[in-house]
């Protein structure tokens, strides 16, 4: 337990590998002894490496999940599901591929809920159902990129009493083209006798203007045509987002399409799509920039997987410390400089 606690604190304070965690422990040994026994002093970096290489990552993830559940009795709002590859965790000499993790991000709570590693011989399609099984989805809206747009995944979300907004791309070529044609026809006919909703947002910033137009078609006849056999459980509407970006004289327009398990709420659709990018900006980008995750060469045994869980744990703790109005990287530095602030980070979720 001493080893695990020192590792958590070390990662919170800016350590990115076992040597740095050992150095953190040696520097803070007198303070650590105020609450840890440390009968043999601070473990060596080799000991940290061996321990985390051998810890069962599924058990460690289970501990993480139980901790997150202790913070919040109920999660609501959007849960964004997305994957990230730890690019330098591969070991070509031993035939080990780079670790790919699929994570669940609670947008409103700003919390990593859980994570599952993708099997080396598989992909996100098999990992996402395992991740969903760990979550309580009732009252939540799950957003997933096109890779996870599968009938079995849609059915699982509905069976777990959640809603979904699933991105639709060419990996479902026939359905994608049918949904695309449905919106093209509806717009040409100005949605005459087609039940629909529309919502537009305009945003300005950094020298650009962004106009987002959102349409939902929840017309029963249209949905019956698109899914005549009822293979997509819970399907209540299809959605389209047209994003227009203006930077000076340059104008770009992009259209995206979605399968939705709810109707009559285009603002909820717009919010969910916008919120989904939070996992990229608030989790993946932060892990790369503030934690330098993509640069980590730790890969022995299960060490890369378990260190990824440590980063998620540290990220949750730092996100929930509200007194310091600075970025995550700066919070890590401050925690390393100040024992009082480090304790405040730990107490922020008490």
List keywords for this structure.
elongated, alpha+beta, 14 helices, 350 residues, 9 strands, nine-stranded mixed beta sheet
Could you explain how this protein is built, in words?
This protein has 350 residues and is an alpha+beta fold. The chain is built from 14 helices and nine strands. Strands 3-2-1-4-5-9-8-7-6 form a nine-stranded mixed sheet, sandwiched between helices. The radius of gyration is 23 Å and the shape is elongated. It starts with a helix and ends with a helix. 39% of the residues are buried. The mean pLDDT is 92.
Number of strands: 9
Q: Helices and strands: which structural class?
A: alpha+beta
Q: From N to C, what is the helix and strand string?
A: HHHHHEEEHEHEHEEHEEHHHHH
Taking all Cα atoms into account, the compactness measure Rg is 23 Å
Helix % is 40-55%
> Describe the biggest sheet?
9 strands, mixed
Which ranges are low-confidence, i.e. pLDDT below 50, for 5 or more consecutive residues?
none
Query: What spatial form do the alpha-carbon principal axes imply?
Result: elongated
The largest beta-sheet arranges its strands as 3-2-1-4-5-9-8-7-6
Beta-strand share of residues: 15-25%
Q: How widely separated are the two ends?
A: 20 Å
Mean pLDDT: 92
Number of helices: 14
